[in-house]
Batch of 4 targets.
Target 1
Amino acid sequence: MKLSQLNHFIAAAERGSLRAAARDLKASQPAISRTIREIEHEVGAPLFERHQKGVALTASGVAFLRRALAVREEMRRAQEEIDQIKGEMTGEVAVAMTAVAAFTLLPRALPAFHRRYPDARAKVTTGFFPGAESALHSGQLDFYVGPLRDRSAMAKFSVEKLFDHRWVVVGRKGHPLAACRSLAELGGARWAKVALTESAYEADIARPFIERGLSAPQVVLQCSSAVTNLMAVATSDLLTIVPRQLLNTPVSSDKFSVFDLAEPLDGAPIYAVRRADMPLTPLAEYFFDMIRRAAGSLIRDGRIDPMP
């Protein structure tokens, strides 16, 4: 099976239309149809259901697409690796990071990466491990940096712990409750929080209260972005819980009061996760190392918590 055939199949699957796939690839629609028939004959199963508006993947097609994407990505990475071994400073590295990982590590890692590879492209998406897992498997992502609640991933991937961190309660500068020194004193406050699909990774405002026998706080605002959440808190009397690293850069800490509470609020450790069965390209390996070094540097500077 040729790579060009896989590209025809992937285009049709992604666009849901043979005509659109042909247009994207600058090929004829009969050529796309013929390629798909050849692939279906070779694998011995229908990969698409044809309907009036286009095509849709069958169950076999979904499985084949997953493998086809992995093959295409490995071919791309192989070519880039060869180019980088030859001394060419080009290529692409794709990373998924949570907000705390990005805000904490990228300001130090990216400048060093671009000094070494000025013509390379770094693609950074914000997300959590469940959303990144399949892309890691297929090679569409080189690695992930963030919390890792799914312990089974430890066996499937190469996992490296970078740092621990703590959450802090924050309100706007001059908040009337800023002098409070315990969670019990915050019972009457109204709260904002980041609400993501991966709820296990959220700043769980209720958990520290419930663990201490207190009533769950009243959450009146849910945001899909950590930055939006902080903007709302900075301009209202709402409170929230955030990783304290978010108040370093690029978010301006002078807009917030950080509550000096007696109770420690431990957050999930931050890990770097990559495939165990496939090496990174030299470019991706260097970026991975810059992320690792950024964490070590921030630990030495006292900006993030050391690993136990």
Note: The first strand starts at residue 48 and ends at 51.
Target 2
Amino acid sequence: MTDWTAGYVADIGYTYGYYTELNPQRIKLPFLASGLVFPEVGTACELGFGQGLSVGIHAAASVTAWSGTDFNPSQAGFAQEIANVSGANARLFDEAFAEFCARPDLPDFDYIGLHGIWSWISDENRHIIVDFLRRKLKVGGVLYISYNTQPGWAAMVPMRELLNQHADVMGASGQGIVGRIDSALDFAERMLATNPVYGQTYPLVAERIKRMKEQNRNYLAHEYFNRDWHPMSFARMAEWLSPAKLNFACSAHYTDHVDAVNLSEEQQAFLKDIPDAMFRETVRDFMCSTQFRRDYWVKGARQLGTFERGESLRAQRVILVNTRDAVELKVSGARGEATLNENVYTPILDLLAHHKPLSLGQIEDAVKGHGLVFAQVLQAAMILVGKGDLALVQDDA
């Protein structure tokens, strides 16, 4: 009998999460900040949409025509239901990647997104996806992809294998996935309590096991207990995507664009001396011990001129989506938590407190009296959008 799950956990549903990075509207600001041309997204696709909250919201709240698939029929059924209720322009299927990617009725796409998929599937499915990107992503189109990466996961690779082996070998067949997860975590905790050399070499693993015991079991099942689990270096990802003619554009995680909260001055200087941009990304992952990358790749990167970039950035509108008093002047990065400069952020937040859209150019003009320049406005916008306090505003159309 064919295993339709292909080794992926299917006896417990995925979490009902919304993943803001999948929103094509978010492409614009980091692309402009990086000096790159971005596409206007009329057609979009999400591969492996889980419960479908993200694709349902993005289809309902825009004029973009969405397509997508998730192999789990119960999850696809829920996603179809919320799309139907909202009247969203979305065609959502319960097909495996091989079946969906071969459909003759799919349009070419301006944008394709995968969140939490790449690291948890087989090489066979990765080849199918890369071929799909080669054939169906338009020239100038953008791929959003997130994945577990090295070196942040290096110490956890053998522990994850131990947890899975315990669940397979020691877990009772009628125990269910949740029971097997609990038993595996208890075993790992007891093993680490014996002070093995592995635990001495990687002391943070014990803390991770402790945190895992407090996490949602649906999340843990899909994160750690699939047959396939492959943290991948940035350089290896570039090799995989090369046949689809994709170039790395920039991080989709907004605070990655602010070096001060992720890198020391010495680290920033070290990275600037590396002439190759791709190798620089690899080294940066060592600096930050990156565990999870959220990246934009583009089919045919094109640079913007300095004037056009400045004009487009100043035209980008933002809106305050949090209450003014709820905005904390703190941000977390690879270096830990940092306190934001009140002299920069207070006048900007006060200006946006009426919860009406303003362009970055309008904000720049309004805060000149506080001695602020556009570079500070842009950095503040990147951080506040990244924190979830601001959102990018769609065109009126």
Note: The mean pLDDT is 93.
Target 3
Amino acid sequence: LQKQIVAQQLADQTNADAKAKEAVVDANEANVRQLEAMQSFKSLTAPFDGVVTARNVELGMLVNSGGSGQALFEVSDLHRVRIYVQVPQSFSAGLVPGMKATFEMPQYPGVQFDATVSHISKAINASSHSMQVELQADNTAGKFFGGSYCNVHFEMPANPNLVTIPSTALVTSNQSTQVATLDGNNKVVLKNVQLGRDLGDSVEVIAGLSPSDRIINNPPETLIAGDTVR
């Protein structure tokens, strides 16, 4: 064309034909890559080192490519396990990431294992009034299995103002709940208290008493403030 040997129309037709054939080559190469990818699906490679915990395919079954069919395998990495616990709202304030805990499993009676709080949802379930907490535990020995149940014991930090007294030490009335204590002169002092959890034969006192107070167990009804006690 530059030497004016061929016409412009012939040159344009030739260039268009060359581009069309290049497009056909590209399409064929894409088809080859697709077929190679489909051939590579014959070999399944797990994305991480683990154990096949479920197999939903057998020899001779037809497996279609693409779509959202059933998973062929399930692989679990059990070197480290997650434990999900629903913690009652009353105990949620003392939970922080990094807190240590222990748990027991039915298949290992009397054996306790260590776990660590890793995540806290910070949201209370409206129906159960509990908060989901995630713990992690080392499973190098392979003793824990996916989907297992366990009982978790949290090592909650102790409240320095929380004391536990016998339930029989309470003096109840229509207005308040009191505990009979002794001062330095062995005189009776009735203190109003605020109760926490009822533990059956004992009860938690969250306000009104200190660990150093001396209390009277099973006080008689005739006992009044100011009485001297031997």
Note: The two ends are 127 Å apart (CA to CA).
Target 4
Amino acid sequence: DPKDRILNFEEVPLGYNEIEAQQEALRCIDCKNKPCVAGCPVGIDIPAFLKLVGEKNFEGALKKIKEKNFLPAICGRVCPQEDQCEMVCTLNKPDKGREPGGVGRVERFLGDYAMEHNLDIIPEIAEPTGKTVAIIGSGPAGLTAASDMVQKGHDVTVFEALHKPGGVLFYGIPQFRLPKEILLREVQGLEKMGVKFVMNYPVGKAESLDSIRDRFDAVFIATGAGLPWFLGIPGENLNGVYSANEFLTRVNLMGGYKFPDNSDTPIKKIKRIAVIGAGNTAMDSARTAQRLQPEVVYLVYRRSRLEMPARIEEIHHAEEEGIDFNLLHSPIEIVDDGKGAVGAILCQEMELGEPDDSGRRRPVPIEGKVREFAVDTVVIAIGQGPNPLLSADGPELERNERKGTLVINEEMQTSFENVFAGGDIVTGGATVILAMGQGRVAADAMHRYLMTGEAKAPAGDDGEVCPNLT
């Protein structure tokens, strides 16, 4: 119940039981073209694992998934299946009242089943190649590349700047969406496969990229999008203004809501808060703020509900939990309370005009319509750019001048021959599963590079095919 769950950080969706998972899996018609496989960024054979679930062969289904994805408990929770595998499902006929197969929920069930029954599905590891690989960043792209490379027989070390593994999976996604014990157990599975983790080690500061390149035969950069974007309006330097990255990191990674009894990192005592944005990060921020027991949580977005980029499920949960949606409002100033802290936020009321380059209708100001929200905290959740720490250490790395993302070729190589990159450091802020897909393609190219000196697949061999990477 929403009134109960906003009092704690326990997981909200309860997931399927065995009977429900079987019933859902049996809806799959195993169609000839299998569009769901093409819709999956990591190319999971979805009909095959659903068939095994329908036969109650849960261990076999887990093995089938882990051929392509070693994080089913995570992906089943946070991947936007409704825009990928489920969207192209042959059963998906909304005009006829038919819904797609519940791929994500069955995947989550299998991941949870493995944990409940202590099933360690360790894939086959190839004979050692003698080659060493450094993975910089332990987010979804880095973890996927590490998994694939260790299976191919390489000696893999993952370097993580923070004190916990998982990158955005740990610091960015709240406990009520992704319990951290699930993430840590999946990482332990990698350790059992032979992957080594070095924590509290920001490459670019603790050690230079050049030094890493000298020590390892190949390097994969997966440092993510840790640079928050701001609005560029007056008052953003006031006390009480957070980027979504800082706000979520203080709560998720550092346990700020438990300060001072069980955490050394505080989070500001909030009475009234405005969260700016309408993506998944904004929903995470607003729903997290609600659990800190303020008087009100405003969500402020300059377009209408139709244009909100967050998952429908997250929007629904936020509304259930009492988030106050204020659509067609665009912040123009954060007001000083006279003591250097946030006292209010001024928002211009908007209306929708013609579509812009994104295909969404452009918000247009309504002259003379400005609204003031009395708040003491503002969280800005309008997106983020690539983490600049490592790029600053390696100025020779070619970057996109406008976005700051690393430039790669079709083989995921950077301007350094033995350095590859993938995930948000290449795409900008994107989805977990997209980052994983890039980690998989990069691992395939790195393996070819290490074994042949050439990352490009030979004629007639396209290597790892992950069709939905854009």
Note: The chain has a mean pLDDT of 92.
